[in-house]
């Protein structure tokens, strides 16, 4: 409707209470245009007053157009509710069945979405990429780690054997040195005894034959025992040296195996981007659980999509403004209390829209009445006012 038409349309009778309610619904706006507050014969004030009235009318008109669209939308939703409530027979049975499925599956979807994840998206993507080789890799890593532990034990055992051989070798060496010392002592003792016996024989003129025999016998016996002990220690030294060489050779072989197995483990850890077989085992378990959860979610979403499509298919049989909105309020199709709540909210929205429309209509009427009264009371300014109206209409059309 043109502003000029609004200017001369009849003003509705409203009580002062309406203005108070309208201001509460429209951000505490107030109708402030009043000819009594201006000097009509002042060109500037009169021009500003006319432009202010026109702007108020245009703004109110635009707001009314916007509110009208929303008002019709709410009315359409209310009409849809009546149509839906009137559905009966087989369609109602199917409608309730699919609505029940939507409500239940929507709840399941929210439950799955809100569930705490045990594996990060990065790790999930990695395990998804390695899924086909994860079991084989786990077996290889487990075998390599067990072999690594066995090698550690072998190295520890060989190190113990090496120290035992070194100890035996050391003891044999000490024994040989001690026997040599004892042999020297025995020889010295024999020479001392012979010297003493010679002194007794030649100086004191004593018979020392028995002494010579005893000395020779004891010396022979002692040296024989020392020789046998010496040879025993020499044999022990050889055996210890041989055992030590064998242990060292075995150690070298085991160390080579250790290095090769360590390199294999490092390669497997790098391949699967882990630091241990235990980590891969945990990730594999978490991945399987997450995969199962996602499969459930996918199945729920497929079922939800099916029920939604079937619900829309049924609703499209009827003359509904917006069948899709029932996807978001499927519970109202099953629960009368929920349907009443939805209707109540729509009615409240419509009442608020009506109040806003009435308020803006009053604003436009008030501004139009002010201009109309201005023209009526001051005919001399009629052409000027109507000219402003025409000029403003052309401006707004652009």
Structure, described:
The chain is mainly alpha-helical and 398 residues long. The chain is built from 11 helices and no strands. The protein has helices at residues 3-7, 16-25, 43-86, 89-114, 121-129, 131-203, 209-272, 277-315, 331-334, 336-377, 382-397. The two termini are 16 Å apart.
Task: Give a quick rundown of the structure.
This protein has 398 residues and is mainly alpha-helical.
- Can you count the helices? 11
Strand content: under 5%
**Rg (CA only):** 56 Å
- Element-by-element helix/strand order: HHHHHHHHHHH
Unreliable spans are 1-30
Q: What distance separates the N and C termini?
A: 16 Å
What is the strand tally? 0
Please give the largest β-sheet: none
What proportion of the residues is helical, as a percent range?
over 70%
Q: Structural class, from secondary structure content?
A: mainly alpha
| Global mean pLDDT | 84
Instruction: Sum up the overall morphology in one term.
Output: rod-shaped
